[in-house]
Amino acid sequence: MNYGKKLFKIKLFTLVLLLFIFSNCTESSEEKKETQIIHNFKPLNPDLEIKLEPFATIDLYGNSNYIAKLPIAFEVDNQNNIYILDAGSSKIAKFDSLGNYLLSFGGKGQGPAEIEIPTNIINYQDTILISSLRARKNLVFNTEGEFLKEEKLKGNASNLIRVTEGKYLGFQLLSENEQRTAYLNLLNKEFSKIKNLNSFTFKHGEKSFVTNFLDAFPPFASNNQKIIVSENDDKAYSFSVFNLEAKKIKTVKFHYRALRFKDWELKNFTKDMGLLDKNLAVTVNTFYKKPINEIIPQNENTLWIMPSIERKDSLDSSMAIDILKDFKWQKRVFFNNIKVNDFKSDNLSYKIKNNFFYRFSLATSKLEIYKIVEK
What we know:
Blueprint lengths: L2 H32 L1 E5 L9 E10 L11 E6 L5 E5 L4 E5 L5 E6 L11 E7 L2 E6 L4 E6 L4 E6 L5 E7 L2 E10 L2 E9 L5 E12 L3 E3 L2 H4 L3 E3 L4 E4 L6 E6 L5 E7 L8 H14 L4 E3 L8 E6 L4 E6 L10 E8 L2 E12 L8 E6 L2 E6 L4 E9 L1
Parallel strand pairs: 1-19, 15-20
Antiparallel strand pairs: 2-27, 3-4, 4-5, 5-6, 7-8, 8-9, 9-10, 11-12, 12-13, 13-14, 14-15, 16-17, 17-18, 18-19, 21-22, 22-23, 23-24, 25-26, 26-27
Protein backbone atom coordinates (compact mmCIF):
# COMPACT_ATOMS: atom_id res chain seq x y z
CA MET A 1 0.00 0.00 0.00
CA ASN A 2 1.48 3.39 -1.00
CA TYR A 3 1.85 6.33 1.33
CA GLY A 4 -1.11 8.23 -0.20
CA LYS A 5 -3.58 5.41 0.44
CA LYS A 6 -2.32 4.99 4.02
CA LEU A 7 -2.73 8.72 4.66
CA PHE A 8 -6.25 8.67 3.18
CA LYS A 9 -7.31 5.79 5.47
CA ILE A 10 -5.84 7.54 8.52
CA LYS A 11 -7.70 10.74 7.67
CA LEU A 12 -10.93 8.82 7.05
CA PHE A 13 -10.61 6.97 10.34
CA THR A 14 -9.87 10.24 12.17
CA LEU A 15 -12.90 11.92 10.57
CA VAL A 16 -15.23 9.06 11.56
CA LEU A 17 -13.84 9.12 15.12
CA LEU A 18 -14.33 12.88 15.40
CA LEU A 19 -17.88 12.60 14.08
CA PHE A 20 -18.61 9.88 16.65
CA ILE A 21 -17.19 11.96 19.51
CA PHE A 22 -19.01 15.08 18.33
CA SER A 23 -22.27 13.16 18.03
CA ASN A 24 -21.95 11.82 21.58
CA CYS A 25 -21.01 15.23 22.94
CA THR A 26 -24.00 16.77 21.19
CA GLU A 27 -26.37 14.15 22.60
CA SER A 28 -24.89 14.62 26.08
CA SER A 29 -25.22 18.39 25.75
CA GLU A 30 -28.82 18.06 24.57
CA GLU A 31 -29.64 15.78 27.50
CA LYS A 32 -28.18 18.32 29.92
CA LYS A 33 -30.18 21.11 28.29
CA GLU A 34 -33.37 19.05 28.57
CA THR A 35 -32.84 18.58 32.33
CA GLN A 36 -32.95 22.04 33.86
CA ILE A 37 -31.38 22.57 37.29
CA ILE A 38 -33.05 25.12 39.58
CA HIS A 39 -31.06 26.27 42.61
CA ASN A 40 -32.91 27.82 45.55
CA PHE A 41 -30.46 29.71 47.78
CA LYS A 42 -32.76 32.26 49.40
CA PRO A 43 -36.53 32.94 49.58
CA LEU A 44 -37.95 35.25 46.94
CA ASN A 45 -40.96 36.42 48.95
CA PRO A 46 -39.87 36.90 52.59
CA ASP A 47 -42.97 39.00 53.37
CA LEU A 48 -45.34 36.15 52.50
CA GLU A 49 -47.71 35.30 55.38
CA ILE A 50 -49.86 32.18 55.49
CA LYS A 51 -52.04 30.92 58.32
CA LEU A 52 -53.98 27.67 58.73
CA GLU A 53 -57.22 28.43 60.55
CA PRO A 54 -59.05 25.42 62.09
CA PHE A 55 -62.26 24.85 60.14
CA ALA A 56 -63.66 21.40 61.01
CA THR A 57 -62.70 17.96 62.33
CA ILE A 58 -64.22 14.60 61.40
CA ASP A 59 -63.82 11.99 64.15
CA LEU A 60 -64.39 8.63 62.43
CA TYR A 61 -64.65 6.74 65.72
CA GLY A 62 -66.69 9.38 67.55
CA ASN A 63 -69.19 10.31 64.83
CA SER A 64 -72.73 9.50 65.95
CA ASN A 65 -74.01 9.02 62.39
CA TYR A 66 -71.19 6.87 61.03
CA ILE A 67 -68.79 4.76 63.10
CA ALA A 68 -65.87 3.61 60.95
CA LYS A 69 -64.21 0.22 61.43
CA LEU A 70 -60.83 0.93 59.82
CA PRO A 71 -60.59 4.28 58.00
CA ILE A 72 -57.38 4.39 55.94
CA ALA A 73 -57.60 7.16 53.31
CA PHE A 74 -59.67 10.08 52.05
CA GLU A 75 -60.48 12.16 48.98
CA VAL A 76 -62.12 15.55 48.35
CA ASP A 77 -64.31 16.53 45.39
CA ASN A 78 -64.70 19.92 43.68
CA GLN A 79 -67.50 20.93 46.06
CA ASN A 80 -65.29 20.14 49.09
CA ASN A 81 -67.30 17.04 49.97
CA ILE A 82 -65.09 14.47 51.70
CA TYR A 83 -64.93 10.71 51.06
CA ILE A 84 -63.43 8.40 53.68
CA LEU A 85 -62.34 4.90 52.64
CA ASP A 86 -63.25 2.48 55.44
CA ALA A 87 -61.26 -0.71 54.84
CA GLY A 88 -62.99 -2.47 57.73
CA SER A 89 -66.41 -2.32 56.07
CA SER A 90 -65.20 -1.82 52.46
CA LYS A 91 -67.45 1.25 52.34
CA ILE A 92 -66.96 4.88 51.46
CA ALA A 93 -68.45 7.43 53.88
CA LYS A 94 -69.32 10.82 52.40
CA PHE A 95 -69.28 14.03 54.47
CA ASP A 96 -69.97 17.63 53.51
CA SER A 97 -67.33 20.37 53.77
CA LEU A 98 -68.27 21.04 57.41
CA GLY A 99 -67.82 17.39 58.37
CA ASN A 100 -71.50 16.45 58.49
CA TYR A 101 -72.22 12.83 57.51
CA LEU A 102 -74.25 12.48 54.29
CA LEU A 103 -74.25 8.86 53.12
CA SER A 104 -72.18 5.70 52.62
CA PHE A 105 -71.86 3.32 49.67
CA GLY A 106 -70.02 0.20 48.56
CA GLY A 107 -69.62 -2.83 50.80
CA LYS A 108 -67.70 -6.01 51.53
CA GLY A 109 -68.17 -8.97 49.19
CA GLN A 110 -67.63 -10.17 45.65
CA GLY A 111 -70.82 -8.98 44.02
CA PRO A 112 -71.52 -5.80 42.04
CA ALA A 113 -70.38 -2.65 43.88
CA GLU A 114 -68.63 -4.84 46.47
CA ILE A 115 -64.94 -5.29 47.20
CA GLU A 116 -62.60 -7.13 49.58
CA ILE A 117 -59.85 -5.27 51.47
CA PRO A 118 -59.82 -1.94 49.59
CA THR A 119 -56.48 -0.12 49.65
CA ASN A 120 -56.78 3.02 47.51
CA ILE A 121 -59.31 5.78 46.86
CA ILE A 122 -58.99 8.29 44.01
CA ASN A 123 -61.23 11.16 42.92
CA TYR A 124 -61.08 12.30 39.30
CA GLN A 125 -63.56 14.83 37.88
CA ASP A 126 -65.92 13.91 40.71
CA THR A 127 -65.78 10.20 39.93
CA ILE A 128 -64.75 8.05 42.89
CA LEU A 129 -62.54 5.01 42.32
CA ILE A 130 -61.56 2.45 44.95
CA SER A 131 -59.18 -0.45 44.33
CA SER A 132 -58.17 -3.68 46.03
CA LEU A 133 -54.70 -5.24 45.89
CA ARG A 134 -56.10 -8.69 46.64
CA ALA A 135 -59.07 -8.66 44.27
CA ARG A 136 -57.19 -6.77 41.54
CA LYS A 137 -60.15 -4.67 40.56
CA ASN A 138 -61.43 -1.10 40.70
CA LEU A 139 -64.94 -0.04 41.57
CA VAL A 140 -66.12 3.26 40.09
CA PHE A 141 -68.92 5.37 41.62
CA ASN A 142 -70.30 8.84 41.05
CA THR A 143 -70.32 11.32 43.93
CA GLU A 144 -73.87 10.31 44.94
CA GLY A 145 -72.72 6.73 45.53
CA GLU A 146 -74.24 5.28 42.34
CA PHE A 147 -72.20 2.31 41.09
CA LEU A 148 -70.96 2.91 37.54
CA LYS A 149 -68.65 0.05 36.60
CA GLU A 150 -66.02 -2.48 37.62
CA GLU A 151 -62.53 -2.50 36.11
CA LYS A 152 -60.26 -5.57 36.13
CA LEU A 153 -56.59 -5.00 36.93
CA LYS A 154 -53.46 -6.80 35.76
CA GLY A 155 -51.25 -5.39 38.50
CA ASN A 156 -51.51 -3.84 41.94
CA ALA A 157 -50.02 -0.81 43.65
CA SER A 158 -50.02 1.06 46.95
CA ASN A 159 -49.91 4.79 47.81
CA LEU A 160 -51.66 5.30 44.49
CA ILE A 161 -52.29 8.73 42.94
CA ARG A 162 -53.80 9.71 39.61
CA VAL A 163 -51.43 11.51 37.22
CA THR A 164 -53.62 12.07 34.16
CA GLU A 165 -56.31 10.28 32.16
CA GLY A 166 -55.53 6.55 32.32
CA LYS A 167 -52.22 7.00 34.17
CA TYR A 168 -51.38 6.45 37.83
CA LEU A 169 -48.31 6.52 40.04
CA GLY A 170 -47.66 4.15 42.93
CA PHE A 171 -45.36 1.65 44.61
CA GLN A 172 -45.15 -1.94 43.39
CA LEU A 173 -43.26 -4.51 45.49
CA LEU A 174 -41.37 -7.50 44.11
CA SER A 175 -40.32 -10.18 46.62
CA GLU A 176 -37.57 -12.76 46.19
CA ASN A 177 -36.48 -14.86 49.18
CA GLU A 178 -35.76 -12.34 51.96
CA GLN A 179 -35.35 -9.43 49.60
CA ARG A 180 -37.93 -6.97 48.39
CA THR A 181 -37.64 -4.25 45.79
CA ALA A 182 -39.93 -1.23 46.01
CA TYR A 183 -40.56 0.22 42.55
CA LEU A 184 -42.13 3.65 42.07
CA ASN A 185 -43.82 3.11 38.71
CA LEU A 186 -45.92 5.08 36.28
CA LEU A 187 -48.88 2.77 35.58
CA ASN A 188 -51.60 2.43 32.96
CA LYS A 189 -55.29 2.04 33.80
CA GLU A 190 -54.79 -1.69 34.44
CA PHE A 191 -51.93 -0.88 36.87
CA SER A 192 -49.31 -2.39 34.56
CA LYS A 193 -45.95 -0.63 34.49
CA ILE A 194 -45.32 2.04 31.87
CA LYS A 195 -42.02 3.30 33.29
CA ASN A 196 -39.99 3.07 36.49
CA LEU A 197 -39.03 6.31 38.24
CA ASN A 198 -37.29 4.96 41.36
CA SER A 199 -36.39 1.62 42.97
CA PHE A 200 -34.82 0.39 46.20
CA THR A 201 -33.99 -3.18 47.31
CA PHE A 202 -34.02 -4.13 50.98
CA LYS A 203 -34.04 -7.20 53.18
CA HIS A 204 -37.35 -8.21 54.65
CA GLY A 205 -37.67 -10.87 57.28
CA GLU A 206 -40.92 -12.25 58.61
CA LYS A 207 -41.18 -9.62 61.33
CA SER A 208 -38.54 -7.02 60.55
CA PHE A 209 -37.29 -4.50 58.05
CA VAL A 210 -33.49 -4.67 58.14
CA THR A 211 -33.00 -1.30 56.48
CA ASN A 212 -33.71 2.35 56.86
CA PHE A 213 -37.36 2.05 55.89
CA LEU A 214 -37.37 5.65 54.67
CA ASP A 215 -34.92 4.75 51.88
CA ALA A 216 -37.44 2.52 50.16
CA PHE A 217 -40.38 4.90 49.75
CA PRO A 218 -39.53 8.46 48.64
CA PRO A 219 -42.25 11.13 48.87
CA PHE A 220 -43.89 11.91 45.52
CA ALA A 221 -46.82 13.86 44.11
CA SER A 222 -48.45 15.13 40.90
CA ASN A 223 -49.99 18.53 40.15
CA ASN A 224 -51.79 17.39 36.96
CA GLN A 225 -49.01 18.83 34.81
CA LYS A 226 -45.85 17.37 36.33
CA ILE A 227 -44.69 14.47 38.51
CA ILE A 228 -42.52 15.41 41.49
CA VAL A 229 -40.33 12.81 43.26
CA SER A 230 -37.94 13.40 46.16
CA GLU A 231 -34.39 12.30 45.38
CA ASN A 232 -34.41 10.97 48.96
CA ASP A 233 -30.75 11.67 49.65
CA ASP A 234 -29.85 12.01 53.34
CA LYS A 235 -27.56 14.95 52.66
CA ALA A 236 -29.15 16.78 49.72
CA TYR A 237 -32.46 18.65 49.71
CA SER A 238 -33.53 18.06 46.11
CA PHE A 239 -36.32 16.62 44.03
CA SER A 240 -36.83 15.58 40.41
CA VAL A 241 -39.55 16.86 38.11
CA PHE A 242 -40.90 14.63 35.34
CA ASN A 243 -43.41 15.28 32.58
CA LEU A 244 -46.53 13.13 32.35
CA GLU A 245 -44.62 10.62 30.22
CA ALA A 246 -42.17 10.16 33.14
CA LYS A 247 -39.32 11.91 31.35
CA LYS A 248 -37.11 13.87 33.75
CA ILE A 249 -37.08 17.57 32.88
CA LYS A 250 -35.91 19.40 36.02
CA THR A 251 -33.91 18.97 39.20
CA VAL A 252 -34.76 21.39 42.01
CA LYS A 253 -32.14 21.93 44.72
CA PHE A 254 -31.94 23.76 48.06
CA HIS A 255 -29.02 24.67 50.26
CA TYR A 256 -29.07 22.03 53.02
CA ARG A 257 -27.00 20.82 55.94
CA ALA A 258 -27.38 17.14 56.84
CA LEU A 259 -29.40 16.70 60.05
CA ARG A 260 -28.98 13.84 62.49
CA PHE A 261 -31.90 12.22 64.29
CA LYS A 262 -31.92 12.79 68.03
CA ASP A 263 -32.61 9.76 70.23
CA TRP A 264 -36.16 10.85 70.98
CA GLU A 265 -36.84 11.32 67.25
CA LEU A 266 -35.69 7.76 66.47
CA LYS A 267 -37.97 6.48 69.23
CA ASN A 268 -40.88 8.35 67.65
CA PHE A 269 -40.06 6.76 64.29
CA THR A 270 -40.01 3.23 65.77
CA LYS A 271 -43.30 3.94 67.55
CA ASP A 272 -44.84 5.24 64.33
CA MET A 273 -43.88 2.06 62.46
CA GLY A 274 -45.39 -0.02 65.24
CA LEU A 275 -48.74 1.64 64.61
CA LEU A 276 -48.75 0.06 61.15
CA ASP A 277 -47.95 -3.43 62.49
CA LYS A 278 -47.44 -4.15 66.20
CA ASN A 279 -45.48 -7.29 65.33
CA LEU A 280 -43.09 -5.38 63.08
CA ALA A 281 -39.58 -4.62 64.35
CA VAL A 282 -37.74 -1.81 62.60
CA THR A 283 -33.98 -1.53 62.40
CA VAL A 284 -32.91 1.94 61.30
CA ASN A 285 -29.38 1.82 59.97
CA THR A 286 -28.98 5.55 59.47
CA PHE A 287 -28.65 8.50 61.81
CA TYR A 288 -29.73 11.10 59.26
CA LYS A 289 -33.13 12.59 58.55
CA LYS A 290 -34.52 12.74 55.04
CA PRO A 291 -34.57 16.36 53.84
CA ILE A 292 -38.08 16.00 52.34
CA ASN A 293 -40.93 14.37 54.27
CA GLU A 294 -44.00 15.38 52.25
CA ILE A 295 -44.75 16.94 48.86
CA ILE A 296 -48.22 18.57 48.73
CA PRO A 297 -49.41 20.32 45.54
CA GLN A 298 -51.60 23.36 46.21
CA ASN A 299 -52.33 23.99 42.54
CA GLU A 300 -50.61 23.62 39.18
CA ASN A 301 -48.03 26.28 40.07
CA THR A 302 -47.58 26.04 43.84
CA LEU A 303 -46.03 23.28 45.94
CA TRP A 304 -45.85 22.84 49.69
CA ILE A 305 -42.74 20.90 50.74
CA MET A 306 -42.47 19.63 54.33
CA PRO A 307 -38.73 19.62 55.16
CA SER A 308 -36.76 18.23 58.07
CA ILE A 309 -35.41 20.92 60.40
CA GLU A 310 -33.23 21.07 63.50
CA ARG A 311 -35.38 20.41 66.58
CA LYS A 312 -34.40 21.50 70.10
CA ASP A 313 -36.48 18.92 71.97
CA SER A 314 -39.69 16.88 71.77
CA LEU A 315 -41.79 20.02 72.39
CA ASP A 316 -40.31 21.64 69.28
CA SER A 317 -42.66 20.06 66.74
CA SER A 318 -44.26 22.86 64.71
CA MET A 319 -44.90 22.04 61.06
CA ALA A 320 -42.49 23.76 58.68
CA ILE A 321 -43.48 24.24 55.02
CA ASP A 322 -41.38 25.53 52.12
CA ILE A 323 -43.67 27.32 49.66
CA LEU A 324 -42.60 27.03 46.00
CA LYS A 325 -44.10 28.73 42.98
CA ASP A 326 -42.96 27.46 39.59
CA PHE A 327 -40.39 25.44 41.58
CA LYS A 328 -38.83 28.60 43.00
CA TRP A 329 -38.64 29.03 46.76
CA GLN A 330 -40.89 31.76 48.14
CA LYS A 331 -40.58 31.36 51.92
CA ARG A 332 -40.41 28.85 54.79
CA VAL A 333 -43.56 29.14 56.90
CA PHE A 334 -44.10 27.65 60.38
CA PHE A 335 -47.50 26.50 61.67
CA ASN A 336 -47.45 26.20 65.46
CA ASN A 337 -50.95 24.71 65.61
CA ILE A 338 -49.93 21.55 63.69
CA LYS A 339 -47.42 19.11 65.21
CA VAL A 340 -45.23 16.83 63.09
CA ASN A 341 -42.22 14.52 63.19
CA ASP A 342 -39.32 14.80 60.77
CA PHE A 343 -39.96 11.60 58.84
CA LYS A 344 -42.35 10.36 56.19
CA SER A 345 -45.21 8.60 57.99
CA ASP A 346 -47.75 6.27 56.38
CA ASN A 347 -49.96 7.04 59.37
CA LEU A 348 -50.49 10.60 58.15
CA SER A 349 -51.73 11.87 54.78
CA TYR A 350 -52.12 15.42 53.53
CA LYS A 351 -54.02 17.17 50.76
CA ILE A 352 -54.79 20.72 49.62
CA LYS A 353 -58.02 21.34 47.74
CA ASN A 354 -59.85 24.59 46.98
CA ASN A 355 -57.80 26.57 49.51
CA PHE A 356 -58.32 24.07 52.32
CA PHE A 357 -55.58 22.02 53.98
CA TYR A 358 -56.48 18.46 55.08
CA ARG A 359 -54.58 16.16 57.43
CA PHE A 360 -55.76 12.61 58.14
CA SER A 361 -54.32 10.49 60.97
CA LEU A 362 -54.58 6.70 61.04
CA ALA A 363 -53.59 6.73 64.70
CA THR A 364 -56.52 8.90 65.81
CA SER A 365 -58.89 8.26 62.85
CA LYS A 366 -59.48 11.99 62.64
CA LEU A 367 -59.50 14.25 59.59
CA GLU A 368 -58.50 17.82 60.42
CA ILE A 369 -59.56 20.59 58.06
CA TYR A 370 -57.92 24.03 57.98
CA LYS A 371 -58.66 27.09 55.88
CA ILE A 372 -55.60 28.55 54.12
CA VAL A 373 -55.40 32.31 54.72
CA GLU A 374 -52.72 34.10 52.71
CA LYS A 375 -51.80 37.71 53.37
